[in-house]
Amino acid sequence: MKHIGKTLVACAGLLALTVGAASAQETIKLGISAPMSGAAAIWGLGMQWLAQEAAKSVNESGGVKVGGKSYRFEIVAYDNKYNAAEGTKVAQTLLNRDGIRYIIGSVGTAPVMALQSLSERKGALLFTTAWGASIKGPKFPLTFTEINTPAEVIPPLYGYVKQQHPDIKTVAILNPNDATGKETEVVSRRIWESLGVKVVASDWYERGTTEFQPIAAKMAGLKPDAIDLGTAPPGDSGVIFKEIKVLGWNGVKVVPAGTSAESMIKIGGDSVDGVYMGLSADFDGPQATEVQRRLNKGLRAAVGEPINIVQIGGYDAVMALKAGMEAANSLEPTAIAAVLPTIMFEVSYGKTTFGGKDTYGSPQHMLLPAIVSQVKSGKLIELQRAVPAELTRRLAGK
User: 199: Cβ–Cβ under 8 A, 6 or more apart, which residues?
Assistant: First the structure.
């Protein structure tokens, strides 16, 4: 991880990666705002690599064809450090200094809200993996999500866990004290309670925390049947579960925003065995597509870890943007935004489109399978990959 970070992050934090073929005459810059340092660094570094691979694929196949011309993609990425202050700086750099009109990857509700406040005003397209429902809806016509968020992840995840462990009666929840954590906590509490599980505590911690023993002691002392770490990144989750195991607690472990099993295992060891995750998939497994298996092999070679669902959004957004530009026959963000929900396009999961109007008030959510996975004996096992009903209807032309 240290090696890849040094290789990819330039002195000012800029990652300007140019990939392409000579057949594409003009360059379109695509931006990324994501954490590339700290506990969540793997999300940003992986997203950057996957976006690069998508851009390379587009460029080598002749680029994007619009108005009789061919364009190549270039990826420009900055470290938002997973906080609002840095997110604001990155937004200003991408949109004002660099003049970028298409953001194909952005991570973290707080930094993304800062980015969105400027992108919508400047008429720039924003693709994001941020979990907050507050960033979606008719007020934000140029914003699209490239990942399943609490409304899609939490109900099937908790439902599966409750089905497997019907004796769960109580749960303690812990989330980072930021916009992502706060918005997720509301959904988590509602779904747990709908399943007949009492929330005995819901606490918060600051991102960047390194001493988790007091938090672990408090949670273990409540003796809940389950512990839910909400939107904690893999590194934090590993530390917390390790501390809790030392204290003798051994109940059901859940991480709705759990992405990287390997990162958790490296830090938490056997304390993370049994953890249920809502944002992790086996991209080498039988349910993965050929594209996903190829990308997974490449990312593992580059950063030493497999793909997670946050990262792959960078690849999928590039493919969605290309399809939108060509379908609209325009480079104007407003024209692309208007056509995206009306077309089917290929991403790493296969064919999809944008939907979710019944949930968010406008069709701006990429329809992707809901995946439930679990760490078993030091390995990630994909338990369930369910295609959303709306996508099934759209694929059938209904």
Answer: 170, 171, 172, 173, 189, 192, 193
